[in-house]
Amino acid sequence: MRPCGRRVDSGSEMQPRWFELRGPAPSARLPYSGDMRKERSPTRSALSALCCAIACLAASANAADDPAAAAMIRETGWPAAWFRPPATARDLGVQSFSQSPFLDGKNLPPVEDRLPADPIVLEPYAEPGRFGGKAMITQGDSWQFFNWEPALTFAADMRTLLPNLAEGWTVSADGRITTVRLREGIRWSDGERLTSDDFIFSFDRIWMDPDMSPVTSRLILGGKIEKIDELTFRYVFPEPNPLFVNFLAQRHDFVDPEHYFRNLHPATAPKEAVDARVKELGFVTWMAMLSALRGASIEECSDVPTLRAFRLVGRAPTMLRFERNPYYPKVDRLGQQLPYIDSIDAEAILDNAEVVTAKAATGQLDFAAYTLRTQDIPLLKLGERTGLIDVLIWRRLHTSDVVVQFNFNVDDARLRALYWDIRFRKALSHAINRQEMNDIIYFGRGTPSQVSVHPTSRWYRPEWTRAHIEYDPAKAGGLLDDMGLLDASGNGYRDYPDGSPLIITMEFLDFETPKGISMELISNYWRSIGIDLRIKLVDRSLQSARAQAGQMQMSVWHGGRVTDILFPLTPDWWVPRTTGWWASMWNDWARYYQTAGRIGEEPPAIIKDLQYWTDELRTSTNPARRLEAGHHLLQVGADNLWTLGTVGLAPHPVVVSSRLKNVIPNGTWGWDNRWTMAYHPATWYLEESAD
Predict the structure, then answer these.
(1) Number of neighbouring beta carbons within 10 Å of residue 646
(2) Burial class (CB in 10 A: 0-12, 13-18, 19+), 162
(3) Is residue 490 part of a domain?
(4) Predicted pLDDT of residue 63
(5) 340, 342, 404, 673 — which has fewest CB within 10 A?
(6) Residue among 411, 641, 632 nearest 505 (CA)
(7) What's the whole-model pTM score?
(8) Is 469 inside a domain boundary?
C-alpha cells in the first residue's frame, strides 16, 4: 500500500490532509482477522486453546504498519497505539495498580481483584491524568463522553478492527462462523464476571427474539450463537457473513448482563414474576420494560450493571448522575485504573440546541458536541475569549451533510416517472450552488460533494464525489426543457407536459446537520430554474411514520455509514436493502429485497443488479471481490445520481472546558466510529476538582 499524496480540493487550508488517505486493503491482513493472545489461565479448554492458536497464526501486520495508517499518524499527531491492538499490563511490565481515592472506604475488593487478569492499557492523547473531579455534560453527550464497550472495537483509521472485551476472534474460511474469546476476569459494574452467557442471552433473547425484535436484521438473519466454554463462543450463520465482526464492533448492544435480565424475560423467568415487575414499573409489556432498562430511560436503570467507564447512580427528570465504574477493566501505563474522572452530572436537554450552545459558550459544560452545529462556531469562539472553554474544530464524517432523497416509490405516478428520468436528477444537481452553500453555511471550510465513501476508505475514488456537481443553471434548464417541463401557465414555474402544475413537497427533520438553512437555499436554487419546491419541517415521530410508509415525495438526511466500518454492511445510499425512519428513497424495493419478494414492489433490473452486488459486498470472503462489488455500487451511484449530495466533511465544533484534558483537537465526528470511541474518553481528566 502507498499513502495518497493528492489533496481533496476543499478551497480551504483548514481541510486536513489526512482526509486524503486511501488505497487498497493491507495484503497481509483481512479486516476481520483477529489476534487472540496466548492463554494465561491453566483452566482453558483444549478447544479454546486450538481457536487461539489458529487466530495467532492468522494474525499479521498491525494497522500502524500500514503506510496509510502511518501517514495518518504523522498528519494527525495521534498516538500510534490507537492504530494497533491494545497493549496489556503484562506487555508493558505494569505490575501494580492503584485506584481513585473516591473509591476508598466503599467496601470494595482490592483494585487488582477488580481488574482482569491482564488489563488493557489505554494510551492517552497527551499524558497520564489524575484522579478526581465532577464533569458537567448533557445527556446527549453521555453517549460520547464515556463511550461503549463492545467485544471488538476499531482503530483510529476507521478501517481496522481491534480486540476490546475480547482478546481475539477468528472467522472461518467460509465466512459462516465467527469465534470470539473474551479476556479473563472482566467484570460488570456490580462485580459479576463477564462470560459467554451474557452474549448468548443478548443474541437469543434480544436480537433473535421475535417479540423483542420483530424484524430481524438481515446482517444476522438465520444466525445462532453457541457456547464453547465460559469465555469462548461462536456465531454461526447459514450463509457467509465475514463482516459480521464489523457489526459486532460498531454496536454496543450485543451484550447484556444475563444475571440481571434473566429475571425479567419470560423465557428465563416465571411469567408471574415478570408480569409483576412490569406492573410495578408501570409498563404495559415486558418488551417495553426491557427496552427502557436497556436504554437507561427510567430511574430503575441505576440497577442495571454496565461495562462502561461510568455507571448510572441516579435519574431525575432533568438530570442523570453517573459515578465511576469500580470494575472498569482498563488502566493507564502507570497502573491507574481508569477512568480518571470520578463523577458526571448530565443534564437532560438533548432537544434544545440553543440552550446547549449557550451553556457550552459560557463554560457551564465540560464537554459539548452532539447537539452543536457548524453555525454555532462564531458564538462559541466568542465564548472562548473568556478563557473558560476551548473550541476544537473536528471534521464531520458525513461525505455530504445534507443528502436529497427522491422517493422512487412515491404513489404519484407522474412524479415517480419524473424522478426516474436521469435528466431530471442531473438538472436538479446542476442547479445547486454548492460552493455558495459552503461559503454561507460552513464558512468555506467544507467540501462540495456528492455522497460517497469517506476519503479514508479503500473504496474511495475522488471522481465519484464530483459527479455532476458543477453549478450550471443554464444546463439544468436545458435538461428540463428537453423533458417538456415548460412554464405553460406563465407563473414562473414549470408544468408537466400536459400543462398541469409541477409541485414537489420536501419534508425533513432539522436534526444534527444544518438541514433547515440548506433547504432554504436549495428551494431558492430550484425555483430559479422553475421548480416549485415546497419545504415542510416535521418532527421526529411524523418523519418516522411518513418515511416508513413511503408517503414523502422528497426528504433529506446526512451522509453517514460511509467508512469501511459500515459501508460494506449498509451501503444504503446506493442500493435499496433496508427501510428506515431516516430513509425515504425506495422502501418498497427494499421490502421486496428483504422478504425475497413476499411483500413490497419488484424493482427494475438495474436495482436488482445492485442488490446482487450488495450481497456480494457483504458475503464474499474474498477481499478483492468485495472491493470490486463496492466499486460497482459506487460507480453506478455516481452515474445515476440516486441521491443529490451538497457539502461534506464539514467542520464540527467540540467544546471542552479549559480544565478538561487529553481531548484531541482534530478528531472525526460521526456515527460510523461512534464519535469518540477510538480516542479513548476514559483517559480524559479534569485538571482540578470541581466538587
Answers:
(1) 35
(2) buried
(3) yes
(4) 63
(5) 342
(6) 411
(7) 0.89
(8) yes
